[in-house]
Amino acid sequence: MKKIVDSIILNLAGKTKEDVLLNISKFAKQKKLIKNEQLVYREFLKREQLGTTAIGKGVALPEACWIVMSRPYAFILCRTKEPVDFDSLDGKPVRIILVSLGRDKADLTRLKPMAKLAKLLKNSEFRNSFLNVKNTEDVYSLLNA
């Protein structure tokens, strides 16, 4: 499962949804996954305007598509430093964020890995373990368990 998650952020800073999404955009550019962090940030915000990507139980699944990237798609798994209000459907703040980035929203090749990751995030044992890991190596071990 290590190849499914391209990057991990264990102490994502930000007090608001907007702060968090901007920091993810900056991180993605630093990792050379994207070319333009401001464009990706705007895409995140446009998607959130359609409706929250917070699916409940402390998890959000923001995405940005139709962006210039170094490959067809990428996933970033994040844990926030503090709970963040994401306008979640269940009213609970978010601590776990799985970001999906893609060149082409119609490219269905990213759906299979996304489904595997989403299934993990539905599991309360996985969520609790992820919230308590100490480093990225522990995350990869957790993903491969």
* Principal-axis shape: globular
State mean pLDDT (0 to 100 scale).
92
Distance between the termini: 9 Å
Q: What is the count of helical runs?
A: 5
Give the radius of gyration: 14 Å
* Counted beta strands: 6
**What's the main sheet like?**
6 strands, mixed
Order of helices and strands: EHHEEEEEHHH
Q: State the low-pLDDT regions, or none.
A: none
% residues in beta strands: 15-25%
Please give the share of residues in helix. 40-55%
* Global structural class: alpha/beta
What does this structure look like?
- The chain has helices at 17-30, 37-50, 111-122, 124-132, 136-144; strands at 7-12, 54-56, 59-60, 63-65, 73-84, 94-102.
- The protein has 145 residues and is α/β, with parallel strands linked by helices.
Features:
145 residues; alpha/beta; six-stranded mixed β-sheet; 40% helix
Topology (elements, then pairings):
Elements (H helix, E strand, L loop, with lengths): L6 E6 L4 H14 L6 H14 L3 E3 L2 E2 L2 E3 L7 E12 L9 E9 L8 H12 L1 H9 L3 H9 L1
Parallel strand pairs: 1-5, 3-6, 4-6
Antiparallel strand pairs: 2-3, 5-6
Summarize this entry quickly.
The chain has helices at 17-30, 37-50, 111-122, 124-132, 136-144; strands spanning 7-12, 54-56, 59-60, 63-65, 73-84, 94-102.
